[in-house]
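Hey, weird one. I pasted the MULE transposase domain-containing protein sequence into the form twice and got a warning about non-standard characters only the second time. First submission, copied straight from the form history:
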Amino acid sequence: MDKNDIAIGNDKVLGCRETMGGEDALVGEDATYKTNKYDLPFVQIVGVTSTNKTFSIAFAFIINEKEENYNWALTYLKLTLEECMYPRVIVTDRELVLMNACQQVFLDATRLLCRWHITENIKKHYRQSIKSQHEWDSFRAMWAVLVESPTWILYTKNYRKL
């Protein structure tokens, strides 16, 4: 292994740009809650390239979903990365302690909420306020157009239609 190689577990991760084919990547983090034989939260960190390729970056079992445990996992992840590999964008669900830990460890990263989690929350909390199936289907179609808006101008226009 040379200085551009990083070992994480048994997997070899190439240095800076080689990892993502010369592209920047979006980093997503989420924890499953005690759905494993260890009965511990499992934190999985994945990357997504600009060409929509996903790859595993790291994972950890933590004692509980508290900020200091996420800080620990993210700090050790950061220690394995070269500075040029630090994420520029981090996507999470709305778990506040995870969001806080991301902000503390990766200060310069933009933090976004996961589109899938937002959509699931809309289904859970907003669906019952729309009575007809036709109106719900129409809303979902307009929502899909909104979240797929390729520019800020189109997003604003589609948001007003919603």
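That's the output from the first submission. The warning seems to come from a hidden character in my clipboard, not from the data itself. The first helix runs from residue 16 to 19.
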